[in-house]
Amino acid sequence: MSPVVPTTAVATRSVARDDDPLRVAIFGAGKAAKFHLVALDQIPGVEVAGVCSRTAASSEALVVGRPRAIATTDAEALIAAPGIDAAIVAVPHELTAELTRSLLEARIPVLVEKPAALTSTEASDLARLAADRRTLGLFAVNRRYYSLVQQALAIVKQRGPVRGVLVEGHEGVDTLQRQGNIDPGLTRDWLLRNSIHFIDLLRLVGGDVADVASQVTAVRVPAGDHLSASISFEGGAIGTYVAHWNSAAPPMLRIYGEEVSAEVRLAAPEDAFVQFFAKRRIRLHADRSDQVAKPGVLEQDLAFLRAVSDERLTAPFPASDLADHAASLRLVEAIRGSS
To answer: 337, 326, 319, 311: which is closest to 150 by C-alpha?
Structure first.
């Protein structure tokens, strides 16, 4: 059941069209799907139309308190259900591209969790299909929507162009395996399956990529668990990606500008500050939207649904459509391939 939302939130977040709610179908019933449901409950004018997962019990658990929502294990049936305005895809990676393709074929706007495809070529194919069907297709990169990331980037840009960006994408992969959160076989493609969230931030800050050179060392993971990449961007900025798995270091974003730099911690508890000359330093504070839902997810889902409500084929910055997602996948492939 949707929580009571303050009047100010209703005014700024509502996406209803002519007082009719937008009906959103959720594909998947795991952690990511639950994050989206929490966010959707904060947006007036949204109704969950149904939840589809591979097990009936999982789907049914997520529609409790939603009397008009369908619980099903049949994706095609939910796609064909009347009155579906939009869909969020949060299914296992191997199923994502095929399901996204089916939704686009049915002209249902879609927000797709990472990665939307397992190769940049496949993502480009999905982008072309979205364009052909004149249907909105966005990639879910909630870290782009972190209020701390957006604040930091705006402050640096106020003083001139971005000169450099550093992303530290350290991850405790061994711990995740011991806890049973990931299958050991997934580490071969971990940059694609999870680290793309961090790598995508390089493009968010730096823009289009001109060249990439990287070095990867394999200690415990054959595909490489210590990585460093140098990226040059077409706009003149220089980027660096560093990842030392299992080092216990937190993931970080650093943005370098003219007489200013910013740093954002990308893991809970998220934190950020901006550094100026003369040792002046200010701490940034997260917006309320990042406190009532998983950071970035509420603003990301709101941007998607506003675009759906307005019948637009794009969403404003910092949204990532499927063509933009293909560019981030190409960067992942370059980091892996040039080593």
So the answer is: 319
C-beta of residue 52 within 8 angstroms of C-beta of residue 78: yes
Residue 178 to residues 224, 245, 268, 273: CA-CA distances in angstroms? 19, 14, 20, 34
pLDDT in tens, 5-18: 333 343 456 787 77
What 8-state DSSP symbol labels residue 218? -
> pLDDT tens-digit profile of 232-241?
999 999 999 9
- The residue whose two tokens read 């307005």 is 310
What interhelical angle do 322-337 and 120-132 show, nearest 10? Answer: 170
Domains of the chain: 7-141 (3.40.50.720), 147-285 (3.30.360.10)
Answer whether 25's CB lies under 8 Å from 87's CB: yes
- Exposed, middle or buried, 132 (CB in 10 Å: 0-12/13-18/19+)? exposed
